[in-house]
Design brief:
This protein has 271 residues and is mostly helical. It is built from 11 helices and no strands.
Length: 271
């Protein structure tokens, strides 16, 4: 085998460049045109932040953004609690009865089309005569994002050295206190990463929220979609830029938390 490091060929460099341009060039153009002074989104009129001011003066948009943040925080918190408990059960529960069915139900939202999930939840809320609003959207987003939290936390638990928790129990801790004092601090970055991922997915969701929302509880993606159907306004570019920046920060924080969790697990020597 050659000891020389692999070098990118000219074809690979061109392919990577075209691939990244296809993915990120539209976002870059959107960010640039969010600072366009012209009212026409296709005509450049100089640099300006007037559309950001328009957004912060738009009461309907601000209400929709506040609704999205409330739903995102509530659903991400519920999904993190339930997803962490599910991950512990799947990792530490052994071969209990119904494990395969539980795994299948947890991972089903990962591959199920959002239209089907949204329609199913809508029929459920109609069947139980639940008024659609904040809580129906929150429950729907919790159902959607819990499986992602389970995957993240379960992968961290599977790589964790169980002997650390067993040593704590040998020193007099009961299983619950050993988990809280030893295991939980080690998997906390993975839990935080799962929460950020769940919040991001909830903030971006349009399909499921459109099925489960009601009057006066429209989220920001629904509001943006209703505005875009009548024509793209420069204010939409400013809103999307703020969302892209906010989600980028969350993704970076989630990545750092995941790397921190992995490094802690690697540095923890078995007793």
């Amino acid at each position: 085998m050659s000891s020389h490091p692999l070098r990118l060929s000219r074809f690979n460099i061109v392919s990577l460049t075209l691939g990244f341009a296809f993915l990120y060039l539209p976002i870059v153009i959107l960010v640039i045109y969010s600072f366009n002074a012209s009212r026409l989104v296709t005509v450049w009129g100089g640099w300006s932040t007037r559309w950001y001011t328009e957004f912060f003066n738009d009461r309907a948009m601000l209400d929709a953004a506040w609704m999205s943040f409330r739903v995102g925080i509530a659903s991400a918190t519920l999904a993190t609690v339930l997803g962490t408990l599910a991950a512990v059960a799947l990792t530490r529960g052994g071969g209990f009865r119904g494990r395969a069915a539980m795994s299948g139900m947890l991972y089903a939202p990962l591959v199920m089309p959002e239209v089907i999930a949204g329609l199913s939840l809508l029929l459920l809320f109609v069947a139980i005569d639940a008024g659609r609003g904040f809580w129906t959207v929150t429950i729907a987003h919790t159902t959607l994002t819990m499986c992602f939290v389970t995957v993240v936390v379960q992968s961290r638990l599977a790589a964790l050295d169980r002997s650390l928790e067993e040593a704590a129990m040998d020193l007099g801790r009961d299983p619950f206190r050993a988990f809280v004092s030893v295991t939980l601090p080690l998997i906390w970055p993975a839990i935080a990463a799962g929460w950020m991922l769940a919040f991001t997915l909830s903030l971006d969701d349009l399909v499921i929220a459109s099925f489960t929302t009601g009057p006066g509880s429209a989220t920001l993606p629904i509001r943006i979609y209703s505005e875009v159907r009548l024509g793209v306004k420069p204010e939409i570019n400013a809103i999307c830029t703020l969302i892209v920046g906010f989600i980028t920060v969350l993704i970076v924080l989630a990545s750092l938390a995941t790397k921190l969790s992995s490094s802690r697990g690697a540095s923890a020597a078995p007793l």
